[in-house]
Amino acid sequence: MAYLTVTNINKSFNNTKVLTNISFSVDKGQTLVIIGSSGSGKTTLLRCLNFLEKVDSGIVQIEEKTIIGDNYPLIDKDIRESRLHFGLVFQSFHLFPHCNILKNITLAPQLLLDKTKLTNEEKKQKLETITNDALQLLETVGLSDKINAYPYQLSGGQQQRVAIARALALNPEILCFDEPTSALDPELTNEVIKVINNLKSQNRTMIVVTHEMNFASKIADKVIFMAEGKIYETGTPNDIFKNPRSQNLISFLKNN
User: Is the pLDDT of residue 74 over 80?
Assistant: First the structure.
């Protein structure tokens, strides 16, 4: 049984179709990499999965539980709850510049805690847990010494690692990355690859959108090639990068 199942997702903007019958599955602990040219629909797909865009039709299930379908959540409360299934690491980090690194990671869990009906003592204990979890995440991404630093004091690679820790702070079932290395030079890219490989070793389920083929081949268990809002090929890294079948993929790899 697949961990994540996506069936016939469709999405249009102003009568322009950007996703057409997108269907795929991801097993638990698997890293799915999505490749394709700019405008192929990769980022829109991630945004739909993370409830930042509303699909026009289709079904998304996690362990056979439908989170997007005919009963698509319409109220903010339902959307917030469904969004917690996924964590999204943005291309441009999106850290809060006025908060130090520890606060960047703990802010979202603290805001969720504020909405709960716990006693003051229970909230105090939860806050301690949130802080301890954040410190552990910073150790995981190799930034234990930066808890009091601010984003402007960090390199791009360090900021991206903080963004990964922040996404993990809500303990999502599936962690999504949108072009996580596009703004980084090769040395800093290796920092991010190391963190993602560490997460793979922890059996994390991940979806990564990237235009960098070397990066894709290093981290992928499964690869999807998208073009014109459609999936043209799906396979192992060896299938996609060494034995492409469609002319679209052959042309794409030739130019990348």
Answer: no
